From TrEMBL:
PROSITE patterns: B12_BINDING, RADICAL_SAM, TPR, TPR_REGION. Its cofactor is [4Fe-4S] cluster. This is Radical SAM domain protein. The lineage of its organism: Bacteria, Pseudomonadati, Thermodesulfobacteriota, Desulfobacteria, Desulfobacterales. It comes from Desulfatibacillum aliphaticivorans. TPR repeats lie at residues 481-514.
Length: 563
């Protein structure tokens, strides 16, 4: 049977789509189970708010699925509902299934108000979806009523079958990397913590299950062989099981995987050993939910961590050459000047090299949502309104939109204006075994200030100077090709082509197979009018579109000089 699984469009555009752009790993696991059962299961990532729905529907129809499943969170539920309505209008026999955290907490709401939805898979979806598709394939409507975790209409009313327990051995699931390419993957399922703004505790029941190191690394190995070199490890807390994480890291190293990856952790779940092995295995960034510098706010969010834990985690993470990123939440109860100052003070104390600032949202499945609907005698019908979320400040008379906007601006401005000072204060571990990693850390960070996210932000003073400092610092640890490339680019940008030439020619002697250095050297020679020499470099890069274009320009200039 043909099944198309879709990650549908969100309602709102974002300044950065990093938090919503990637298909949840669970959808790939569902697809892999279906493929393993012999179904033709395909996955589509259509999260973009400006998606051309009519064109998407045509694409779906050209595939010809019998079942279309949508993986939804709260923000993209209308993307799924709108697309499902269009599909049903054109093909009433098509089966529409909703799954994911959004369907888990609002299954009754969807089946009550939206006739285009046939079924909802509640909770962990692999076994339920596979059983549902099997029943649909053989026309066993009675069997559907016995599948644990499937919601349907019975006599027009939404009914949920009894939910089955969680999959105990998640290693028994087929590896999605056998069938699909992706960059997000996870080592575990669940989270033992109970933050008030998070739906994970209710979705997973705070039950923790882990893949083996072998399962996880085999996934990485397959994906790396297919060309993927960068990964996001999306566990709520990757470092919960220290021995397992270290075993994963050692297996990555033993397998010779040349990869880089980001992870998420809690500040009370890292130490020197785990950070050392993560860095050696290619981890370049860890994100921590510090949420607030105000302990009262952290208590309200049920974060259960001390300021001392926060300070220690950021100091250690930076020492081992891993970029530390902080998540802050504002717009909480009691927000005001004192809380803002506590956040600014914490920021200056931990000196994060990346920061994300969120307004506190209320979503179904969270304790904040339960308290909100109970206090105001509301129902899930509030989600009939086309909104992605409810902001906490909108429910608190003591908070205003102006205050929230001013707070957000103050937090972001403070971070970007002080980021150069955070960089200049970096102190890395004095460990000869980490010299290559330290050099990589400095040069990678340098690129963010010269050609990356920080390069053109007006709030950052002298971003190119910060980048130059970082590249030169990298070269004190090891001969790093990215550092040479960064310095060469900076000299070019300043019109110092002769100095750039010296740097890039030295770099190419050290790294003769580095295509980016060769390409940059070629463009630098063009700036010096040495088109013949430049052409020789571009002709060694016939597979690079940029090199092809520059080679044509060189030939034209050479031909013109002979006329």
């Amino acid at each position: 049977m043909k099944v198309l699984l879709i990650y549908p469009p969100f309602l709102n555009k974002r300044v950065s789509s990093d938090d919503v752009a990637s298909i949840p790993i669970g959808l790939y696991h569902v697809a892999a189970v279906l493929r393993d059962a012999g179904h033709d299961a395909q996955v589509a990532n259509w999260h973009m708010p400006n998606l051309d729905m009519a064109k998407a529907v045509q694409t779906i129809e050209s595939f010809g699925p019998a079942v279309v499943g949508f993986s939804i969170v709260n923000g993209n539920r209308f993307g799924a509902l709108d697309m499902a309505a269009m599909l049903k209008e054109r093909n009433p026999n098509l089966t529409i299934v909703l799954g994911g955290i959004g369907a888990t907490f609002l299954w009754e709401h969807f089946l009550t108000h939206f006739p285009q939805v046939d079924y909802a898979v509640v909770g962990e979806g692999e076994e339920a979806m596979a059983s549902l598709v099997k029943c649909l394939e053989i026309g066993d409507s009675r069997g559907i009523a016995e599948i644990p975790g499937v919601a349907a209409r019975v006599d027009g009313a939404p009914v949920l079958t009894e939910q089955k327990g969680y999959i105990r051995d998640i290693d028994a699931l087929p590896r999605p990397s056998r069938f699909y390419k992706f960059q997000h993957l996870s080592l575990s399922r669940g989270c033992p913590h109970n933050c008030t703004f998070c739906g994970s505790p209710k979705f997973w029941g705070r039950t923790m299950r882990f893949h083996s190191a072998d399962y996880f690394v085999r996934q990485l190995h397959t994906l790396a062989k297919s060309g993927e070199k960068f990964f996001y490890v999306s566990d709520d807390t990757f470092t919960l099981k220290k021995d397992l994480v270290i075993r994963v890291c050692k297996e990555i190293i033993e397998a010779g995987l040349d990869i880089s990856w980001n992870a998420i952790s809690r500040v009370d779940r890292v130490d020197e050993d785990i950070l050392y092995w993560m860095r050696k295995a290619g981890c370049i960034q860890i994100s921590y939910g510090v949420e607030s510098g105000c302990e009262t706010t952290r208590d309200m969010l049920n974060k259960n961590m001390s300021t001392q834990d926060i300070l220690r985690a950021f100091e250690l993470t930076t020492r081992f050459g891993i970029l530390s990123r902080a998540y802050f939440i504002y717009g909480c109860q009691g927000e005001g000047p004192e809380v803002l100052q506590a956040n600014l003070d914490l920021m200056d104390a931990i000196k994060p090299l990346g920061a994300v600032f969120y307004i506190l949202d209320i979503f179904p499945g969270t304790r904040l949502y339960e308290e909100y609907v109970q206090k105001n005698n509301l129902t899930d019908d509030i989600w009939l309104k086309r909104v992605e979320d409810i902001m906490y400040w909108e429910t608190d008379p003591a908070l205003t939109q102006d205050l929230i906007e001013e707070t957000g601006d103050a937090l972001r401005n403070h971070f970007y204006r002080n980021l150069p000072d955070y960089v200049y204060s970096l102190q890395l571990e004095n460990n000869p075994d980490l010299t290559m990693e330290h050099s990589d850390f400095y040069s990678r960070l340098g690129m963010t200030f010269t050609v990356g996210d920080y390069a053109n932000d007006s709030r950052i003073s002298n971003a190119s100077g910060v980048g130059e400092f970082l590249f030169e610092k990298a070269l004190t640890f090891a001969q790093d090709p990215r550092a040479y490339l960064g310095l060469g680019l900076l000299r070019q940008k300043c019109g110092q082509f002769e100095k750039a030439l010296d740097i890039l020619e030295k770099a190419l002697e050290l790294f003769p197979n580095d295509e980016q250095i060769r390409l940059c050297l070629g463009t630098n020679l063009m700036n010096l009018g040495a088109f013949g020499r430049a052409l020789k470099h571009f002709e060694l890069l016939p597979h690079l579109p940029g090199a092809i274009k520059y080679a044509e320009q060189c030939r034209a200039c050479i031909a013109g000089s002979y006329r």
